[in-house]
Amino acid sequence: MVFFLMYYKKVMSKKNFIYLYIIFLFYVQVNSAHLIENIKIIQNELILDVVSSNILVSVFDKDYNFINSAYSVNSSLKIALKNDQLENLKIISVKIPEKLSFEKFGSSGVTQGQFRKPCGVFIDYFNKIYVCDKDNNRIQVFDPNRIFSFEFGNFGWSTSINEIKGQFNKPSDIVVNRFIYVCDTENHRVAKFSIDGSFLSSWGGNGLENGKFNFPKGIEFDFSGDIYVADTENDRIQKFDSNGNFILSIGSYGRSVKQFNRPNDIAVDREYNIFVADTKNNRIQMFDRFGGFKKFFKFGEKFLKSPESIAVIGNVVAVGSERNSTLYMSDRNDNFNKQFKLDFRPSKMSFVNSNQEIILYITSTKDNCIYYTEFEKDERSI
User: Fold this and answer.
1) Which domain holds residue 42?
2) Distance CA 257, CA 275 (A)
């Protein structure tokens, strides 16, 4: 749009260009959320006004490394900064409403756009939506308008993971970067596909050794392309490179720090922090990229009730409890903790940035559909 203006300034009259510039300003106004204003830095504090309460304001450096955050309960906020954090900042504000409103797509069945126990969901860079249609043993792909695009996969089982190739046995989770990675739970493997759904390779197999799995149910990647797998019934997290070569293992069975009891899901943020839904220990554990323990997330509770799914975007952390039909939300600094009682049971979830909002997609294996809700977002650079 800016290039468009620069070009037409050369070929249009001054009067017509002014009209066009006014239209441009209007375009920017209506296509941008405005949650904060009057931004200034005084000494080592970022000071700003918020348009309402319940706004999470997070500050990042130019590379989106997290610095600090605050949550609005009145009209102004102060966020502490360090001496080397006063320039080239990104400010991302997200409105966390008191009540969530959901829409949905999909229904029960076996035809295109229908599901039987949809589980993992992921939205790629182009806002295409990938869904693990678990009991139909396939992956379905939808365009950004949630219209069916294509599918791949069918049922297959073997004790040799190299025989089943592009077939599945209860796929539970999926992530997409330059490739598609599927957590093929009851075949105890990770299957890798090209972006059009063509099978490329797989790794794993049932076992206790490094690189083997026992009913893995969660998968995630980091910004270097490494793959993390929630090896659920081996009570550990395994990390691999993009070709499936083993890198490290985190955890073992138990209730202590860095121990798990049926970890069901995993998320990794831009700074390589690893968030694990430690389901039967009723907690969320956070680790660094090398597996060092950092903290527990409790969302204002003594313990969480069966956290089965987790998603992270920026500084926002969301956790779903299928058993209790509850969505928990917080941030890394515990500035706020919210619980939303849902009218459905959440299975897996995934965030995506979309223009002036953040969209949260949540699958429901019980309702055989995908729910989604939007959070208003404001992003600034100073």
Assistant:
1) 36-95
2) 13
Contact yes or no for 128/149 (Cβ under 8 A): yes
> Closest Cα to residue 265, out of 226, 199, 317?
317
pLDDT tens digit sequence for 247-306: 999 999 999 999 999 999 999 999 999 999 999 999 999 999 999 999 998 887 777 889
Residue 10 lies in a domain: no
- 350 found inside a domain: yes
Q: What is the pLDDT of residue 300?
A: 79
Tokens found for residue 103 = 């829409």
Q: How many domains does the chain have?
A: 2
CA distance 98 to 336: 12
What residues are paired with 374 via a beta bridge?
A: 359
DSSP per residue over 50-92, as a string? Answer: ESSSSEEEEEE-TT--EEEEEE-SSSEEEEE--GGGSSS-EEE
Q: How wide is the angle at C-alpha 187 spanned by C-alphas 184 and 188, nearest 5°?
A: 80
Tell me: do 169 and 215 sit in the same domain.
Answer: yes
CA atoms of 162 and 358, how far apart (whole Å): 39
**Encoding tokens for residue 335?**
């500035």
Flag whether pLDDT at 314 surpasses 70.
yes
Same-domain status, 85 and 229: no
CA 191 to chain centre: 20
* pLDDT tens per residue, range 153-207: 999 998 888 889 999 999 999 999 999 999 999 999 999 999 999 999 999 999 9
157 in a domain, yes or no? yes
At 16, the amino acid letter reads: N
